[in-house]
Amino acid sequence: MSKLKINYLGLSLESPLIVSSNGLSNSVEKIKLMEKSGAGAVVLKSLFEEQILLETGYLLKHNDYPEAEDYIRNYTRSNTLDNYLKHIKEAKQAVKIPIIASINCVSADDWIEFAESIQEAGADALELNIHIIPTSKEYSSKDVEQTYIDIVTAVKSKLSIPIAVKISSQFTNLIYMVERLKAAGADAVVLFNRFFEPDIDIEKMDFMNSNIFSSADDYNQALRWIGMLDGKTSKIEFSASTGVHDAEAAIRLILAGATTVQLASVLYNGGIEQIKGFNTAILTWMEKMNYETVDSFKGKMSYKNVKSPAIYERAQFMKYFSSLE
Predict the structure, then answer these.
(1) What is the pLDDT of residues 57-84, one digit of tens each?
(2) Peptide bond into 192 cis (omega under 30)
(3) Domains in the chain: how many in total?
(4) pLDDT by residue (tens digit) across 183-233?
(5) Predicted structure pTM score
(6) Residue 244: CATH number of its domain
(7) Of 44, 206, 208, 279, which one's alpha carbon is 20 to 30 angstroms from that of 162?
(8) What is the DSSP string of 277-311?
(9) Which domain holds residue 22?
(10) CA dist list (Å): 52 to 63, 115, 152
């Protein structure tokens, strides 16, 4: 499928379709199936800073020996990281497609060391999944943004492999933030990460999980912002994530300016083998539209290439609601 080849993060991919960070990539056998099904690359399930902190806190709470606290902290961190590094090495030995490691972080403290170890284990690139929820009124929006920059700057200073930064849309000025991330060393931005959202069970008066899977309409926010950013930023790549449930959505996101498109929920719901169908459908569309490569239509409908770029800026349903009585 040479027509589907694309370069992302300096890596040569056989397809613009990437398996995003999720539990399916915890298995080397499933990663093999992802490659066989036509995935261009795989982002491994994230190494969670919060998980390490929670596990450490649990062990410390049930520890009766205060002098063992440092040992517990170091053991928990080391054991979690060692398992992750082992998985990277095994995945790299099992497949030829790029393996992108993922770190879900909320601070810059320990992640420089972790990132260096991940690079040494053979990861082709690193995706920093950053989402900070401010819980103090003393923590300003400027402080929040600076934490993102500090993390990227610190990690980039120690690595030679490329870095993608996975973020949310919840910034006052996303264009400005992406420019700052690029200046800090980000090679790509992934739009957008999907988080745990709490919900309330009104019968049990307890908390429950909201739907963990995306819906087919969720890709529109990424489409808007990738379209805008592709026209207003330069020398940085975009990977679209969340809500891609069919090949048509993937095509639309690439038209908006995405270099790659990430899949997760659709693979959980319909199986990893669906990647092959996505690739076939994209190729069929390319043939119909006379496109020889993915690059030849990437960004064709971005802010800088359409006659009416203001469509990306529109926030209200003016035309729709004005016609209703």
Answers:
(1) 433 333 343 433 443 344 345 567 888 9
(2) yes
(3) 1
(4) 999 999 999 987 667 888 889 999 887 777 767 778 999 999 999 999 888
(5) 0.87
(6) 3.20.20.70
(7) 279
(8) HHHHHHHHHHHHHT-SSSTTTTTTTSTTTSS-GGG
(9) 2-322
(10) 16, 15, 20
